[in-house]
Amino acid sequence: MQQKILLNYIYLAKEHAGGKDQFALNLLSGIYENGDAEKVMVVCYDYLKDVIQKAAPTVEVVTIASKKMHTELERMYGIFCANTIEIPKIIRQHQCSMIFHASCNNGLHKFSIPSVSIPHDIKAISHRVLGAVKIPWYKYILYKIMYTMDFKHADKVVAISQNDQKEMQQYFHKYADKIVQIYNPIKVKKRKQCTVTDELIWKDGAYSGNIVAINLQFHHKNIITLLQAYEQVREEIQCNLILIGALPERVHYLKTYVEEHGLEDSVLFTGFIEGKEKRDILLKSDLYVNPSLFEGFGMTAVEAMLLQVPTLLANVSANHEVTAGLCRYYEPADSVEALTQALREYFHNPCSKEQLEQAGSIMAMRYDYHLIARQYIELFQECIQ
């Protein structure tokens, strides 16, 4: 029996939960398309098998029976138990040569084979307070214990940006020699048409178009600041605001704000969408905005730039690094005035077609999912040897 690298994908949600899930699927697609599918096998909950096989049709998949997990803590406990009890059995049964954990919470014990872990970021302890939200003390302690065990037991820990690596080295300096930095793999089809942003036509001092933001479901995504800034400029620029992403109860105040301020006719909540539909909205937009208070990497900004969509970001954490200083930025992230001014300045002085093409080309070279997948396979093989 050929020994294989076990990709532990039990962390992926039943309903797509954003960048961490997309990272795992992009990585798997890259491994498959590079011709390395025979080197790996995937373990996941049974509800994810079809998604895995769509990304990599020939990859071997082992499933674990899923259980109903209604809360975040229940889900964390279920994953912890699976990694502590069930995953070691799968490793022995299939004689795996190493294991890659696609997220944190890797179980109670060190595995019998080399392991690589990717926390994605350690925001829960490095940025306990973001905006007006503070992580409760019990969650803070839980994450601190969980990360400490993961760093202790792993042979290598992947940081998704240089900023992420510095934070890991600061908070877990005892394990600094284990930390390696590999950027996230991005998979986006090339755009089929050019943006008209460099041909903006102002009529009576106004421009009609669309502003798009993606990822609404967490407080630190700071969409409320975007709504407040948009309210200040919408009559001036005559743009609609399209907000893409799930809208759970914890951020329902966003919809309340729109209703109370009479913005329903120009602010659209799409709910969760993915793939071609999200890409089409981006392609037809005139500006992508991410006002987030923290980003460990920021995949959607890179995706927008790959599609040659003008991009405006809060200048926080990894944003400037990951986008190579090639888009527009504003700061501080939670300043309505700063974002309002940045929106005005963009629509009066938009990016040129040449600028967008250059930025898109650089992003394509840096984050191609085939290239990143090869880097991961090399890391895995290094750990095995």
Overview in brief:
It is built from 14 helices and 15 strands. The protein is α/β, with parallel strands linked by helices.
If helices are DSSP runs of H or I spanning 4 or more residues, what is the number of helices?
14
Helix content: 40-55%
Q: Could you say which overall geometry the principal axes of the C-alpha atoms support?
A: globular
CATH superfamily of the largest domain: Glycogen Phosphorylase B
CATH topology of the largest domain: Rossmann fold
- CATH hierarchy, class of the largest domain: Alpha Beta
Average residue-wise pLDDT: 91
User: Strands across the major sheet, in which order?
Assistant: 3-2-1-4-5-8-9
The first-to-last residue Cα distance is 18 Å
Helix/strand/pairing class, anyone? alpha/beta
| SSE string | EHEHEHEEHEEHEHEEHEHEHEHEHEHHH
Runs in which pLDDT lies below 50 for 5 or more consecutive residues are: 193-208
